[in-house]
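As a warm-up, study this chain.
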Amino acid sequence: SIESLEKFGVSAFKVSSADLTNLLLIEQLIASNKPLILSTGMSSKEEIIITSNLLKKSKTSFALLHCNSTYPAPFHDINLNWISELRKIHNIVGYSGHERGINVSIAACALGASIIERHFTLDRNMEGPDHAASLEFKEFSQLVKGIREVEESLGKTGSSRFLSQGEMINRENLAKSLVASREILKGEIINKDMIIVRSPGQGLSPQKYNDLVGKVISRDMKKEDYFYQSDIDGDNVIFKKFDCKRSWGIPVRYHDFKYFNNLIKPDLWEFHLSYSDLELNIKNFFSQIYLQNFIVHAPELFKNSHLLDLASIDKSYRKLSIANLQQVINITRDLKTFFPNTKKPLIVTNIGGFSMDEPIDEKFKHFYYETFSESLSKLDLDGVELIPQTMAPFPWHFGGQRYQNLFVNIEEIIEWCNKLNLKMCFDVSHSYLACKNLNTDFYEFSKKIAPYVKHLHICDAKSLNGEGLQIGKGDIDFKTLFKIFNKYSPESSFIPEIWQGHKNNGEGFWIALERLKEYL
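Now compare it with the structure written out below.
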């Protein structure tokens, strides 16, 4: 058998359980100088050690597969926990399975098996002992998919606990905060009677309760205002004058616009609308003419949990998305009354194109872009300009992950910007995560997209889902990034879009601006 296989030029040899103790055969395999994979079924611990020692002594590269040599193997006999014991004998361990189904083999992967061997058959009902313990095509495909999912979910050995973007969103909505039980005046000493715990989790953690008691408050607080870490540290944010060559602003909501307008004078305001804002009378929030420019960020989520999707193949769903976005467009035109210096207001939007359980097949993506194009043609965009934002590969909807398919890949973005005469909002964090997922260079992405960019959302990012991080908390080299944008897109405006940067009177936004100013 060795002589025959050598003629084919095989790169390694697999030794069945029946031959683990056949040292004469194994010595001949050692002489081939090729890696060996050895199943350990039907052998005792002592027999496995003897063969392993022979291979180690000869400095042969090999792997051991845990195995139960019955066909099919009963679940109660498999003993997957033996994998950890087998690793004490040799460090490279896998699993050779003859059980029914795929779950045990996937579990072996989770327990550290680096090789999975399964028998393959065209039909499990064929004659012969192996067929009943084998996998047909569909099962084998599911096995591979399951193993890849487990590998991805295991993470790195020794890695620390971190909060994903989805967890941060859910924490903001579901966790608890320390809030003021009554009005508190600047200079008062915080006592226990002044503090209560309430949802949501947008303020100081209840774990900081004892740290807060006894501190002198350095600001006035209304009843049920959040406490923040700065109330313990005593270093409240102080906004100063900020100037840079590039037009800049901060994101605001209707309800906090007056506060920030009294505090700073940016070049522009970016109004982030929620679907509930669409029902409000804007005259209750704006009572004069403002000299700054403005941009609108359309909601992604609308009434009755409707996620905006201009690329949906469901015609009724898409029709509602078009109607919802048209309402945003109409409100933007109304806002221009109060911000007359804005010649043509920009509307930043996510255009949809997401999927629930897996990415859209590449060969169908053009159809979704065409559907988006059709939706654009049905919008009355008179006096405004719609700019889609670049997207992250795994958006968070309703506290869970989905797949984003459109405006992620740079070549597709350029193609459809040219076809539809579009400009973009470059979300730095989103596109960094997209490049990580696609294993492409983020700074090359930035060079290519820069000529198509009208507006920038600036924040840091890390790994595949570290989105919206404070400047310096992620992996982005902002010196390199702004060299690119100062050269190829000098006119594009920007805001710092730090996750929850508005909290504590805009603390996150101001820290970001201070850290960015050396690059602008």
